[in-house]
Structures are given as structure tokens and as C-alpha cells.
Amino acid sequence: MTPREQAVAARAAGQTLRNLPSRKRASLLRRVGSALEANASRILAANQQDLRDAEGVLSDALTARLGLNLAKIESLADGIRSLSEMPEPIGRVLRQTQLADGLDLEQITSPLGVLLVIFESRPDALPQVASLALRSGNGLILKGGKEAARTNRTLHEVITGALRPDVAADVIGLVETREEVSDLLALDDVIDLVIPRGSNAMVRHIQENTRIPVLGHADGICHVFVDAAADPDMARAIAIDAKTDYPAACNAMETLLIHADYANPQGLIAALEDAGVKVHRGPEARGFEYGELACSVQTVADLDAAIDHIHQFGSGHTECIVTSDAESAASFLDRVDSACVFHNASTRFADGYRFGLGAEVGISTSRIHARGPVGVEGLLTTRWRLSGSGDTVAPFSAGEREFTHKTK
After folding, report:
1. Are 366 and 215 in contact (CB under 8 A)?
2. Exposure on the CB side of residue 312, measured as CA atoms within 13 A
């Protein structure tokens, strides 16, 4: 099929999906989770081939994102099953208004339509995104990185196979070439939202080459601010976890800010270095996303300076303050304008699964539509339904009837 034919087919299959009973869509997710576990050996074999091809070609950070293991597959399956247990997201009534006697208006949740999700290196994104699209009733087209081509093909076959015969496999399309992506980005009459997950350059390219709305983030420059009133053991544990738990993740710490009055800054820096982190000091290291075992460290005069630094050099992703001072914590949480703001907790908690969303389609740093980890709710829009009895506007215009606008 051509890219347009794939998008049109995904829209048609998505309409079938959204009209299924809630229990049926939930059962599809359970089937997908079971299929992933049942085909784990097949998936891992494909992934091993991709990893062998990547040796000496990809950076350590990208190779880390590429790899799968049995524990990760089981975790993906658990997350998908947890989505099946969520309250029904489609058709949820958000607002009810009586416009006039016998004229009732409802605002309800509704799928966006067709999603185009483009991701690099991380094949585990494919089942996460597919499950969110299934739960939210959206058609989906996926484009993974060529470095994970075998893994992505296998995952796609396993997932779409689990949907038959209730929903056509076309509900989740898979493309593999840049040319196909270019064609899809021109389909603003068929595709409703583009979600890129990858490098800064890739995200910027997509934003500049489509008229379709784009949701996501180009950078993951996350900060940990160690306040003067921070507990040293806590500061050390959070900074090390935020940097070393998964250095390639977009929610890993890239910049450590230390209050000028913090008791033992050198001890904190030494602890990071002992954990294998390359530490860059000073202003020249500002505003970098390393994506590896490296971070910048900057001393700041006070809380205000820390917040100013975050707003100037951050990407609006995730920030943390470590402090035992409740007033400072409250000020930081209220004033820092990022998608996720934490107190005494690692930035690595900024994740859809850890937030209880079941999975995430990505993390958005934009201020429109959805922000932070985007789960099912971020893949919905709203519709209005009006029920009357042959009502017309003319009597209202003539003053013969009056609007009541009562909230129900």
C-alpha cells in the first residue's frame, strides 16, 4: 500500500476499533500482552540480530536503547494489561448543560483519529504506543529506526496478529523508509497528530516539515537542584539515581545545580564520579543533553538563581529539588515551569508507566494539549452531543424562548 492508502486504512480500522464495546477493546489489550509473552523468544531472537548489526555502528547510548530482554518484555505485557483495567476512556461525559427546557448538551471524550509515531532505537516504544492507540480508539502508523527493523517487524506481526478477527491489522501500520515518512507528513487531511521520539535533529526536522500538529520534545535537559537544606545522603542517592539508572533516557539528569551554601558539594561530585559519571564543571557546560554517563555541575547562589538557570537552559522536561525546607520546596514546585517538577524524588520517575498511565506514547514539553508523560488521556479530544425535540434557533432570536444554561 502507498502511505496514503495505509493512513486511510488506519482511519477506517480505527473507526471499527472505537465502536467496539469497551470490554472487547480491553480484551484485545489482554490478548496483546499474552501474545508478547508467548512470542518472547521470537522477539528476542530478532532483537539479537539487530544488536549484532549495531556493533561498532551505534553509540553506547543508542545501543542501550535498542536492547530488549525477557524482563522488559514481561514489563511491557504487564503495562498493557494494566491499560485494559483502566476506566473506559472513550465517550466519558465531561460536562452536561441544559441549554433550555428539553435541550440538553454533553461534552464527551473522543479519539483523535490517526496518529503517526516516529521513534528511534527503542523497539519497546512500539508495543507501548500500539497499546495506547488501541485503548484510546485511534488508528496508528509507526516508523521505527532502521537499527531496530527486525525487532519492530516482529513486534508488529505479533501485536496485529493478536487483534484478528475483531479488528483489521491495518489499524496499526508500519513503515520503514524515510521516503514513506515524508509522504505521511504531507497527509494533514488524514493524519491528526505526529509524535516524534528521538534526537533533537529528528524532532526539529519533523516540526519544520509538516502541517500536522506535532506533540513531543526535542530535548531532555533535566535538572536536580540540591538546596542548602538538603540531606546529604538523600542528595547523593537522588543525583546518582537520576544520572546512572538509565543515562540514555530523556528523564535522566543532565545538570546538577548546587546551592552555594550546601555543606559538602565536593563530596557530592566525588560520589557521582565514583559512580562512573564524567562531570563537566562551569558555565561552558550549560544546556547539554549528554544521553550518557556525564553531567554538568553548576553552583548557584540561591533558589531564585536555580530557577532562573532552569528556565534559561532547561528544556521544560523534568526538574527536581532536594531539600528539607518545606517553604523552598513549595516555591520550587510552584514556580518552575516544566512539564514535571519533583521534590525529593529522582527525575527518572517522569515516565508513563511509573505515573500509573500504563505506558506512554511520549513526553511532551509543549504547553498545548498534553504535557509531561502522555498516556491515553493525551490521545483523546472532545465532541459535543446535543439532544432536543425539533428545537430551532428562531424562537430564541425572537425572544419567545430563553436559554437556561444550567449545569447538570
Report:
1. yes
2. 8
- pLDDT per residue over 277-336, tens digit each? 999 987 655 778 888 899 999 999 999 999 999 999 999 999 999 999 999 999 999 999
Question: Residue 275 class from Cβ within 10 Å (0-12 exposed, 13-18 middle, 19+ buried)?
Answer: middle
Contact between residue 169 and residue 158 where contact means Cβ atoms under 8 Å apart: no
Q: pTM, whole model, 2 decimals?
A: 0.86
**Cβ neighbours for 117, distance < 8 A, ≥ 6 positions apart:** 125, 129, 140, 141, 142, 143, 194, 195, 196, 197, 361, 362
- Structural domains in the chain, CATH included, are 3-89+111-216+366-383 (3.40.605.10), 222-349 (3.40.309.10)
Interior/surface letters 309-323, b for 16+ CB within 10 angstroms, e for the rest: bbeebbbbbbbbbbb
| Nearest C-alpha neighbor of 65 from the set 50, 77, 81 | 50
What is the sign, positive or negative, of the torsion defined by CA atoms of 101, 102, 108, 110? negative
